[in-house]
Write a structure and sequence with these properties.
heterodimer, A: 166 residues, alpha+beta, Ubiquitin-like (UB roll), DNA polymerase, domain 1, 2 domains, 5-stranded mixed sheet, 5 helices, globular, B: 799 residues, Aldehyde Oxidoreductase, domain 4, 19 helices
C-alpha cells in the first residue's frame, strides 16, 4: 500500500508514492538523495534531522512523509542561494561552530527558524532555542557565536539595504 | 587560501600559529558531507540484528523459519553459522601480578551458547530494505534460559558471583599493580601526619558520537576484493585486525574506507563484531550489506567509558607535602574485552597517578573484571580522566581537611618547572618520564582569571543571601601523542603506534598529502595543510589532505590519544624534510651550484649568499620532466615517512569551575568555567580552543548529567536520549580559556595534543566546586556520586 504525496523541497516540486510508515527524513535521504539531513537518534531528541516545514523548524524523524503532503520543505541543501552561503552557513565557518559536522545541518535549520522570529536573540535565547539539538564536539560555545554572527550579519545587511534605498 | 573562507591569506609564511578558518567546513555546512550512511551501493542490502533481551541467558534455540519467509529477506545467519570464525581480538595484553597472561574469552561475531549482556547479537537478518530486515528480525524466535547476572565491578570480583565466562574464575581478567613496592608505600603512609581517604565511583559513560556507527561492506568476486566503508577513527587498524585476526583475509584484497565520520571520542577506535560479520556476509550473499546502528543499539553496543570503583589514600607530612599515594581500583571491563579495554585502567590510568606532584611513593592496584554489561574501552581521555579525578578530588579534599587553600596545597607539591632540554624530563614513580612542564604557570594564570580572593568574598556575601557558591580546582596532566612503539610494546601493546605521512608533490608544484591520521572533527584538512603550506612556502590552496582510505594511504594507525598532530603531523614534517633535501639537489643542478650551498625558504631554493634562486614549482616540474637533471638522482618528488615518537607528550593545565547550588532543590548551575591549558606549540589556536570547548562539555557532562544506569537485571535503563542526560546548549556559560605554551622537546613541531585535555581536566573541578559550595554552608561532605543530580546534592545537604 502506498500513498501519493506532492512536496516542494528546496523549490523543486516532487510527486512520489510512499509507504505510509515512511518517515519524512527517510523520504528526503533515501528517495530524494538529500543526505545532508541526518539521523542521530530514534526518539526525536538529537535534532540532527531538523528541517524547515512551511518555514518552521521540524524534526523530520518525528513526521511521516505522508504528513508532509502539500508542504514546502527547506533542507540544508537549499540554504545557499545562487552559490552564496546563508549567513548561518558563513557564521558556522567563521566562528568554528562545527567539528565533525554531523549535527551542523540540524543546528543551522533550527537557528534559521530562531532568527526568522527573533532578529537579535540574546545568548540565553540562542541557547534555549538550540537545546533540542545535540552537539558532542563543540560544547556549543562556538555554535552560539556562529548564530550571533549570522544575526549581526543579517541585520547589518538589512541596514545596508535600507540605507541604499534612502 | 580559499577566499570563500575569508582567510585572505596571501602569504604562506607564518601560517603555523594562525587561526585559519577550516577548509573542510563548506561540505558540512551545505549538506554535502559524505558519511557512511549516505553511501548506497548498487544492489544494496540492509542488515538488522536479533539481540538478547537478557543480560545473561543460555540460548536454548534460535528458530529462523518464520523470519526466512518474510518479505524481502535475503539471508539470516546465527551463531552456529559463524562458530568457526575467530572472535574480535584484544589489542593489548596485560599480565596478572603473577606473570600469567590476562584472560581473553572469545568475543564471537554472533553468540551461539549464551548471551552475556543485554544487546548481545544472536542473529543477523539481511533484507532488501532496512524496514524488512527489522520486521524479519522481530520474527526470529529465540528460546532463552535466564541466568543470574552481575553488573557491578566490585561485586563481580567477589566469591560466588555469577560467572560471565565459564572459564574465567572470579570474573577476573587480570589483577595488576604499578609503582613502588606496596610495603614502602604502606610504611610511608603509616608515618604520614595526615591521610586523606576517598572512596568513590567513577561512573560509566556512554560516548554518544552523534553519528551512529555504520558499516557498508561489499565484495567483488571478479577481482576477489572486499570494500568496507566504516565509521572508524582508524581504517588501517580495522583492516589489520579484521584480516589478520578474525576473517583470515589477505589485506591487499581488502579496502577499508572511513569517509566523513560524525564524531568518535574513542568509541570508533575499536574493531567491532559488526564490521567483520558484514564483511563475511557480503561474500556469502554476493551483495553489499549495510548496517546503521539505531540509537538504542549505540547505547547497548558502542564501548562505554570509565566505570571504576576506587579507594584512594593520600598521605601528607606536617607541612602539607604529599608523602604517599595508595590506590585500589576495581575496573569494569564489561562482558567482553574490547580492542583496548585492557590497557585503559592500567597503562592509561595507573601511569598518570603521579599527577603534577612530587609524590615520592605511589602504588596502584587494579582488579579488572568481566560483568554482564556492555564492553568498556577508551572514551575521550581514557584512563587519564579517572586518574585526574582521583588526584584532584583528593587535593581539594585534603586542602579542606588540613585547612589550607586548594591552590596553596598544589603549589607546595608541584614538580618544579623543567623544559626537557636544559633540565631533564621528570621521572615519575609510575613508569613515565614527563617531557616538559611549567605547572605553577597554569595555576597562577587560572587564579588570576578567577580572582580567587574576590571569589571567596563573594561566596561569603552570597551565603548571607541564602545562595551557595563554590569553586573547584583541577590541575591535570595527561600522556598523549600515543606512543613510542617500543615502550608500549614492552607494556603489552600488540601493535606499533607510529604514524605514516606522505607528501606527493605534483609536477606543477601542487601537493597531495596522505596521512594515516583520520579526522572525525579535528580539522586535519586545515591544520595539516597549514603545516605543509608553511614549511613549503606555498599557498594552502595548493595543498590537499587525503585520509581515511587504505587503498590510497600507505599505512596508518589512526586518530586517538591526542596523537594526530604530534605523531601524524611529525610524519608529514619528516616527509617535507625529504622533499626539501631532494629539491635542493635538483635546484643545485639547475643553478650550477652544490646542494650543500642551497637554502630553502619562502618557497624558493636559493644559492647561499647570492640572489640566484628557483621557485619550488620549477623544481617540482624538473623532477617530473628530468631533462636537465642530476645524474644519480631518481625522477619524481614524492616521499613517505613513518614516525615513531621518542616519548609520549604531556599536556597539562588548570581548570577552575564556579557553581551555584540551589539550597532548596540541590540544582547545580555552572556559572563560570576557566580553562588554562598548555598543549605545547599551537598550529591553529581556533581549532585548539574548539577541542578544549568540546572536551570540557564532556567532562562537565560526566560531573553533572551523564551516567549509564544498569538495574539489577543487567538492563541499561537509560539507553535512549529520552533517558540519558546529554549536555545541552543551555547547560553552559561561555567558558573563559587561556593557553600557556611549553613546547614539546622531542618532536619538530613542539606540539603535545589537545583532543582530550578538556575532558581530563574538567570533571573534578566541577565536583570539587559543588562540594566547596556545600562546605561553605557547613555541610561536611566528602563525596557525592556523579552525576551530581539535584537529588543527590539535595540529599548530601540533608546530612
Amino acid at each position: 500500500m502506498s500513498t501519493k504525496i506532492t512536496v516542494t523541497v528546496n523549490g523543486v516540486k516532487h510527486t512520489d508514492k510512499v509507504e505510509p510508515r515512511l518517515l519524512l527524513v527517510h523520504y528526503l535521504r533515501d528517495e530524494l538523495k538529500l543526505t545532508g539531513t541526518h539521523v542521530g537518534c530514534d526518539t526525536s531528541s538529537c535534532g540532527a534531522c531538523t528541517i524547515l516545514v512551511d518555514g518552521k523548524a521540524t524534526k523530520s524523524c518525528t513526521m511521516l512523509a505522508v504528513q508532509a503532503d502539500k508542504s514546502k520543505i527547506m533542507t540544508i541543501e537549499g540554504m545557499a542561494t545562487n552559490g552564496e552561503l546563508h549567513p548561518l552557513q558563513e557564521g558556522f565557518n567563521q566562528c568554528h561552530g562545527l567539528q565533525c559536522g554531523f549535527c551542523t545541518p540540524g543546528m543551522i535549520m533550527t537557528a534559521a527558524d530562531l532568527l526568522k522570529n527573533n532578529k537579535k536573540p540574546s545568548e540565553e535565547e540562542i541557547r534555549v532555542a538550540l537545546e533540542g539539538n545535540f552537539c558532542r564536539c563543540t560544547g556549543y560555545q562556538n555554535i552560539v557565536k556562529s548564530v550571533q554572527y549570522a544575526a549581526d550579519k543579517m541585520s547589518s545587511k538589512k541596514k545596508i539595504k535600507k540605507e541604499a534605498t534612502l | 587560501m580559499s577566499t570563500s573562507n575569508g582567510n585572505g591569506m596571501a602569504s604562506a609564511k607564518g601560517l603555523i600559529g594562525k587561526s585559519v578558518k577550516r577548509v573542510e567546513d563548506k561540505r558540512f555546512t551545505t549538506g554535502h558531507g559524505n558519511y557512511t550512511d549516505d553511501i548506497v551501493l548498487p544492489h544494496q542490502t540492509y542488515a538488522a540484528f536479533v539481540r538478547s533481551q537478557y543480560a545473561h541467558a543460555k540460548i536454548l534455540s534460535v528458530d529462523i523459519s518464520a523470519a526466512k519467509a518474510m518479505p524481502g529477506v535475503v539471508a539470516i545467519y546465527t551463531g552456529a553459522d559463524v562458530a568457526a570464525i575467530n572472535g574480535v581480538p584484544s589489542g593489548w595484553q596485560v599480565n596478572f601480578k603473577n606473570g600469567n597472561a590476562m584472560k581473553e574469552p572469545k568475543h564471537p561475531l554472533l553468540v551461539a551458547d549464551k548471551a552475556r549482556h543485554a544487546g548481545d547479537a544472536i542473529a543477523i537478518v539481511i533484507a532488501e530494505s532496512k524496514e524488512e530486515a527489522v520486521d524479519a528480525a522481530q520474527a526470529v524466535n529465540v528460546e532463552y534460559e535466564e541466568l543470574p547476572c552481575v553488573v557491578d565491578a566490585y561485586k563481580a570480583a567477589q566469591a560466588g558471583a555469577p560467572l560471565v565466562h565459564d572459564d574465567v574464575p572470579n570474573n577476573m581478567c587480570y589483577d595488576w599493580a604499578l609503582g613502588n613496592p606496596i610495603e614502602e608505600v604502606n610504611d610511608a603512609m603509616s608515618k604520614a601526619a595526615h591521610v586523606t581517604t576517598l572512596e568513590f565511583v567513577n561512573q560509566r559513560l556512554v560516548p554518544n558520537a552523534i553519528e551512529p556507527r555504520c558499516y557498508n561492506s561489499s565484495y567483488d568476486p571478479i577481482n576477489d576484493k572486499y570494500t568496507l566503508y566504516t565509521s572508524s577513527q582508524n581504517p588501517h587498524v580495522i583492516r589489520l585486525l579484521m584480516c589478520a585476526f578474525v576473517l583470515g583475509l589477505p589485506e591487499h584484497k581488502v579496502r577499508v574506507v572511513s569517509p566523513d565520520v560524525g564524531g568518535g571520542f574513542g568509541s570508533k577506535i575499536f574493531h567491532y563484531t559488526e564490521e567483520a560479520l558484514l564483511t563475511w556476509c557480503t561474500k556469502q550473499i554476493g551483495r553489499p550489506v549495510k548496517w546503521t546502528a539505531e540509537r538504542t543499539e549505540s547505547f547497548l553496543l558502542d564501548a562505554h567509558g570509565r566505570d571504576h570503583v576506587t579507594k584512594a589514600e593520600m598521605g601528607f607530612d606536617n607541612d602539607g607535602k604529599i608523602v604517599a599515594l595508595r590506590v585500589k581500583t576495581y575496573a569494569n571491563l564489561g562482558a567482553y574485552l574490547s580492542t583496548f579495554g585492557s590497557c585503559v585502567p592500567t597503562y592509561l590510568h595507573g601511569t598518570l597517578l603521579q599527577g603534577l606532584y612530587t609524590t615520592p611513593k605511589i602504588n596502584v592496584d587494579v582488579t579488572a573484571v568481566f560483568t554482564n554489561t556492555t564492553a568498556v574501552d577508551a572514551y575521550r581521555g581514557a584512563g587519564r580522566p579517572e586518574a585526574t579525578y582521583l588526584l584532584e578530588r583528593l587535593m581539594d579534599l585534603a586542602a579542606h581537611e588540613m585547612n589550607m587553600g586548594p591552590a596553596e596545597l598544589r603549589f607546595k607539591n608541584f614538580i618544579p618547572p623543567f623544559d626537557g632540554v636544559n633540565q631533564p624530563g621528570y621521572q615519575t614513580q609510575v613508569a613515565l618520564q614527563y617531557d616538559s612542564g611549567n605547572y605553577h604557570g597554569v595555576l597562577e594564570k587560572g587564579l588570576e582569571m578567577l580572582g580567587y580572593q574576590d571569589f571567596r568574598n563573594k561566596q561569603k556575601e552570597a551565603a548571607k543571601n541564602g545562595k551557595l557558591l563554590g569553586v573547584g580546582f583541577s590541575t591535570y596532566i595527561e600522556a598523549c601523542g600515543i606512543a613510542p612503539s617500543a615502550v608500549v610494546g614492552s607494556l603489552g601493546a600488540r601493535a606499533g603506534l607510529f604514524e605514516f605521512g606522505q607528501i606527493r608533490v605534483q609536477p606543477t608544484g601542487k601537493v597531495t598529502v596522505y596521512t594515516g591520521s583520520h579526522s572525525h572533527g579535528q580539522g586535519h584538512e586545515t591544520t595539516f595543510a597549514q603545516v605543509v603550506a608553511d614549511k613549503l612556502g606555498i599557498s594552502m590552496d595548493d595543498v590537499d589532505i587525503i585520509h581515511g582510505d587504505t587503498d590510497s594511504i600507505g599505512f596508518g594507525m589512526g586518530t586517538y590519544g591526542s596523537r594526530s598532530l604530534a605523531v601524524g603531523g611529525t610524519a608529514i614534517v619528516k616527509s617535507i624534510e625529504k622533499i626539501i633535501e631532494k629539491g635542493k639537489k635538483i635546484a643545485a643542478h639547475l643553478l650550477e651550484a652544490s646542494a650543500d650551498d642551497m637554502d630553502f625558504a619562502d618557497g624558493k631554493f636559493t644559492v647561499k649568499g647570492t640572489d640566484k634562486s628557483i621557485p619550488f614549482a620549477n623544481v617540482a616540474l624538473t623532477a617530473y620532466v628530468p631533462h636537465h637533471y642530476p645524474k644519480d638522482l631518481e625522477p619524481g618528488l614524492d616521499f613517505s615517512s613513518f614516525y615513531d615518537p621518542a616519548n609520549f607528550t604531556y599536556p597539562f593545565g588548570c581548570h577552575i569551575a564556579v557553581v551555584e547550588v540551589d539550597k532548596e532543590t540541590g540544582e547545580v548551575k555552572l556559572k563560570r568555567f576557566i580553562a588554562v591549558d598548555d598543549v605545547g606549540n599551537i598550529v591553529n589556536p581556533m581549532i585548539v580552543e574548539g577541542q578544549i570547548h568540546g572536551g570540557v562539555a564532556q567532562g562537565v557532562g560526566q560531573a553533572l548529567f551523564e551516567g549509564a544506569e544498569y538495574d539489577e537485571n543487567g538492563q541499561l535503563t537509560n539507553a535512549s536520549y529520552m533517558d540519558y542526560c546529554m549536555p545541552r546548549a543551555d547547560d553552559f556559560p561561555m567558558y573563559e580559556t587561556a593557553s600557556q605554551v611549553t613546547p614539546c622537546p622531542h618532536n619538530p613541531l613542539g606540539v603535545k595534543g589537545a583532543g582530550e585535555a578538556g575532558t581530563i581536566g574538567s570533571t573534578p573541578a566541577v565536583v570539587n566546586a559543588v562540594i566547596d559550595a556545600l562546605w561553605s554552608a557547613g555541610h561536611e561532605v566528602k563525596d557525592i556520586r556523579m552525576p551530581l543530580t539535584s537529588e543527590r546534592v539535595w540529599r548530601a545537604m540533608q546530612n
